[in-house]
Every structure is written in C-alpha cells, then in structure tokens.
Input
Amino acid sequence: MKLTVLHLSDIHIRGTSDLIFNFPKEIAATAFEAARESDACMILVTGDITYGGQKGEYKAAERLLRSIRSAIVAEGVPFIDIIVAPGNHDCALLPINNARIALIQKIVAEPELATDDTFIETCTKPLDAFFRFQKTITQTKPTEAHKLWMEYELAVRGKVVRFSAINAAWMSRIPEKQGDLIFPLGLFQEIIAQPCSLRIALLHHPLNWYAQSTYHPLRKGLRSHANVVLSGHEHLTASGATNEALVGENLIFEAAALQPDSKDEAAGFSVLAIDLEDSSISELRYEIIANKISQRGDPIFHSLSPTRGQDATREITDEFQRYLRDPGGNFKHPEKVNIEIDDLFVYPELLTTSDEHQEEPSIQADVVFSKNHVGEHILFIGDDKAGKSTLLLRGFRDFHRRGLLPLFMKGNEFSSRSTLELGKRIQKNAEYQYVTHDTFTRAPKEKRIALLDDVDREKWLRLFEWVFRSIVTGRFGKVTAHFG
Output
C-alpha cells in the first residue's frame, strides 16, 4: 500500500488576499507524481491554519485547501482527504477571557485537573470556529471524536492507517509560554493503542513545548504507538528518527511555515511518499521564494519501523476489505470518485429488550459495539432492509479496531449439526477474511467474536442448543447475530 502525504503547517490565513492564494495549484502539483502512484493521498495540516481563529479566516482556509484538493483529485487519485489539527493561532483568544486564564493556571499547577470535562469545555471554547471548520473540511468520519483528539481510519489494500489529530492548543494563551502545555494522554490511551498498519499523529507543538508532567507520558505514547509524528509551530523544517530503548522508534517531521509572519523567513512545506510494502518514506522539501516554488535539495529517505502496538498478523484481506467498504449501491459525489459505506453510514438507535436495559429502553449501536460483552450475546431483530447486515459489518470493524478477532459468517452455514463441517466453515471464513488466518484459529476464545448474518429464525430456534454448545462455549467468547 502506498500513501502520499502533503504536509502543510502554519498558514496564518487572514483572508483570500493573502499571497498564498496565488499558489494552490502549484502546491498541489508537487504531490502529483507521488499521488499518481499511490492508493491514497492525504493533506495533513498541523495547525495555525488561521491567524486569529476568526470565522472569515476559516472560510478563506477552506477555499485554499479545497482548491489544493481539487487539483489533486483531477489527477485521478483513488482517494484524497484533508485532516487538520489546531494550533495556538487557531484559537480566538481576544478579548482575553480571564476566567479561562485562571483555569489554565490551575491546570498547570495541578495537571490532574486536565481530565475534568468542565475544564476542557471552558478551555476549548476559543476553538469553536475551528471545530466547525474541522467537521466541514474532512470528509472521512472520525472513529473517535473528542475536543482534544480526533481519530480517523483509512483502510486500503488490506492495510489500516490511523490518523490521530491531537489538540495541543486547547490551553494556548497570549503569549504562548514554552513548558506550560498540558495534555491528558491518559484519556486516549485505549485509542492510541488500537492496532493498525501505520499510525500518523498530528499535533501543532513539538514535544519541547509541554510541561514535564505531560512531556514524558506523551513522548512515550507517541514513540510506542505512532510510526510518524507531524508537527509545526517553530517554522523550521526538520526530520529524523527517534529511538528509545524499551519504548519504540518513530519518525518526526517538523514543518516550515507555509505563510510565515516574517518576510525574512522562507515559506515551505513537504511531500511524503510512504510505502508500507518497503517500509520506507521518501521526503521532498519545498520552499516558496520570490513567488516561485522550488524543491530544496535531493529526496531524503527514511526507514519506517513498526511500533509496539502493531500486529500485522491481524490484517484483513484486500477482498474482504472491499466487502466491508461496499456501500451496497451505485452512489456518486462530485468531489469523490469512490463512495464507500463510511460516507453514508450512521449508527442507528436500537430498542433494547434485555432486563439490564429496562431503565434505558434505547441505546446507540456504537455503544453496544464498544462494550466488553465477553460471555454475553447480542441478537438484532428488525424489518427487511432495515440495515442489519450493514450494522453487523460495521460491528466487525469496531471489534477489530479494539484488538479483537471477529469472524463474519452467513446464517445458512449452520444448516446441520456436524461439528466437523462447522470447523471447516469457520476455517474457510478465516482464510477469506484474514491475511494470516492462523492468527484467528489460534487466538484465545475470549478474543474471537462470531458475527452471524441473516440467520433463519426457525433454524435458529431448532438448533439453538447445539449452536451455543458447539459454537459459543467451545469456539467464541461472544456471538452477535440478526434474524433474516
């Protein structure tokens, strides 16, 4: 799988009269060669998109980024999207909110308060315009959405790439003081530890801007779980590998400012060509001088190392990935070549029938999939065309994202009581769905989840005892099914 990344940072947009609006097609053109050879292209922006976090500035930013995106789309790239993380300039900090400043000072003195929802809500208020912009500019729906962390997933050719957009600017002030930033990584430990083929983390401030209470856990978390870390803020281009014994190795890419404050600074950006098959990254650096974009030096080649959190044996086959992404119809969109189920799917609200949920008769489907139900089983009942199969396939991805090993099977595969035949069908499905199918068959029962699609109601009732004796108690820690 090949991925092209156009890394932009510190654009400091005031309006459409900014000089950078002379260059969207030229910026896009620097990614053309790599993007044509890639399975996907991502425009990743590491903060300071605007100058002062104002609504009009975000409107202009949207116009600039969409122009760059459209130029790359015209080259026939299979998939392209934009992911952004905020910087201190993306906060509307004027007029100064003294109550917010007092809270920030309290968090700096007592870092454990950084997990308090009320504190987070108040401190992120200056980013309201950014959050609206973020929701509009990115087409991919986040797998996790929090004001301090947005998680996105891209699955291509049997590989799963995760993008972690980290809000390092939630405590930003005027002036920004180095060493005072706090980030509660503990709130997102389960998210960053989710297995994948590649994780790219985006944050505005490099690690040297964080307080000691944050610096060490954030550094450890990123080196353990992120292959690539992109940042900006300091307006200096730098890259290289960091390696820490017993923690991990990753690649750091720090960006120049695309539109620097000082006329003495050269504007710049980078293009990264990532090849997961070769475990390599080719970095091309560009600068804008005298209204001309030029390549700075020769390509720089980096080796891509796996993180502790990655498990290639859990990779899903290309064919089953296509099945999971299939929207089930011929849909068209003017700005996207291939419409996938992610572009359409919304978790439904479910009515519950178990005694456990008598006080809460309804529950969102994503909440059902997020809980630890080992030893429990779920049955979806609904009308034809209600989307039960689609929901079950989404459950596959949600369970897999959590490090579990789901197996999707059709209900008609349970037409006999032959345990031998059942074993063969389970093996066949594992071979179809997993690149290394032995990983599934050798996994402990509590890691395996059976997803039974389109179960015949009469057969289910007739074979109920055998199903749960032979399938559940012997082979899986959990069964999720629906009646056809």
Summary: The CA atoms of residues 369 and 398 lie 7 Å apart. The chain is about 30% helix and 25% strand. The domain at 2-310 is CATH 3.60.21.10 (Purple Acid Phosphatase; chain A, domain 2).
